[in-house]
Amino acid sequence: MAGHSKWANIKRQKARVDAVKGKTFTQLSRAIIVAARNGVPDPAGNFQLRTAIEKAKAAGIPNENIDRAIAKGAGTYADDSVQLEEMRYEGYGSGGVAILIEALTDNRNRTAADLRAAFSKNGGNLGETGCVSWMFAQKGVAILSGRVDEEKLLEASLESGADSYELADCMAEVFTDVGNLENLSQHLKNEGFVVSDVELRWIPSNSVEVSDSEQARSLLKLIDTLESLDDVQNVTANFEMADELMALSV
């Protein structure tokens, strides 16, 4: 068990996107619908649903909207005629950067067309299923806020079955198998850590170093465009770039 910094750039990329745009009400509500559909429609017995509700409340979504989303996921909402599908799309950005997109859609043709347009306008290509997903593995991530004692974090990570962790200024991220995320989160809380968020994240097995400013600008614009689509829930790419390049689209 050891800390690692390989994914620090991806974390900064995600933080930049979230700070600029944030998740829309539509995206957060859809996450609740899918969580309720995939498990019991009770947050007490559904970790995914409980997490989605917490994020929705933090974003200011009214309780009645949350309750309606749960009912839609459970199939008990009388006026619900929309059926959402979980879709995963794959493609390439400028310079062959691999991009993985998770979407929730009620019209896969519309979503594919929107994604294809976003790629083509920003120097990329929407690819076939499987073209880049083999480069990624899904992990559970617990995000800790505040200053973290590394020795204490190492011990807690070992005890909870985590794979690795990453330390940064006033925060840390702990990585584990998807099925162990709830256990990890609870154990860290019991040990006194402040768990500010938990999520599932696609982690690339290799990365592409980006040093050209025009390529960086093109990639960041593509990521922003993809993230702005209501059907898109998450975007992951396998590039690394220096902070000064990362700031180009801010």
From TrEMBL:
Record's keyword annotation contains Cytoplasm: yes
InterPro entries given in the database record: Integrase-like_N (IPR017856), TACO1_YebC-like_2nd/3rd_dom (IPR048300), TACO1_YebC_N (IPR049083), Transcrip_reg_TACO1-like (IPR002876), Transcrip_reg_TACO1-like_dom3 (IPR026564), YebC-like (IPR029072)
Domain TACO1/YebC-like second and third: 84-239
GO (cellular component) term, any one: cytosol
A single MF term (Gene Ontology): DNA binding
Main subcellular location of this protein, as a coarse class: cytoplasm
Alphabetized UniProt keyword annotations: Cytoplasm, DNA-binding, Transcription, Transcription regulation
Stored Gene3D superfamilies: 1.10.10.200, 3.30.70.980
Entry keyword DNA-binding: yes
GO biological process assignments: regulation of DNA-templated transcription
Pfam families: TACO1_YebC_N, Transcrip_reg
Annotated TACO1/YebC-like N-terminal domain residues: 5-75
TM helices/strands, residue ranges: none
Subcellular location: Cytoplasm
PANTHER family: TRANSCRIPTIONAL REGULATORY PROTEIN YEBC-RELATED, TRANSLATIONAL ACTIVATOR OF CYTOCHROME C OXIDASE 1
UniProt record similarity statement: Belongs to the TACO1 family.
Designated name of the protein: Probable transcriptional regulatory protein NIES1031_20920
Lineage of the species this protein comes from: Bacteria, Bacillati, Cyanobacteriota, Cyanophyceae, Oscillatoriophycideae
